[in-house]
């Protein structure tokens, strides 16, 4: 497959077309940033309440954020749309917790 891509790039370069070698790279245009706005609002709420990136320093963060994820999903599943403290969506809080877990898992 790489040989075909290389051949196509070479043909395009010689034809005077613009060339951008992005085959096989993640396509971030598939991500709708508007869907992450609520998560960013929750992150901003946390940064204002504690401090920026405080979540990275929480002891036993992996377990604690997993527990928080489950609490937010359970509340949402039980019909509670918004977190009582922040007034923001439980799903946006859950996205934050997944984001934190992904950070700790890399």
Q: Can you describe this structure in just a few lines?
A:
Helices cover 56% and strands 0% of the residues.
Layout of SSEs?
Blueprint: H1 2-14, H2 37-49, H3 61-77, H4 90-105
What does this structure look like?
- The chain has 106 residues and is mainly α.
- Helices cover 56% and strands 0% of the residues.
- The chain contains four helices and no strands.
Oligomer: single chain
Share of helix, binned? 55-70%
Computed over alpha carbons, the radius of gyration is 21 Å
Global outline: elongated
Number of strands: 0
- Name the average pLDDT: 91
Features:
single chain, 106 residues, mainly alpha, 56% helix, 0% strand
């Amino acid at each position: 497959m790489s040989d075909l891509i290389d051949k196509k790039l070479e043909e395009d370069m010689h034809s005077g077309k613009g060339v951008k070698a992005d085959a096989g790279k993640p396509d971030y245009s598939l991500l709708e940033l508007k869907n992450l706005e609520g998560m960013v609002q929750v992150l901003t709420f946390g940064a204002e309440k504690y401090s920026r990136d405080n979540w990275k320093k929480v002891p036993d963060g992996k377990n604690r954020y997993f527990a928080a994820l489950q609490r937010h999903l359970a509340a949402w599943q039980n019909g509670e749309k918004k977190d009582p403290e922040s007034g923001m969506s439980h799903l946006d809080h859950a996205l934050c917790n997944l984001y934190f877990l992904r950070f700790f898992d890399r």
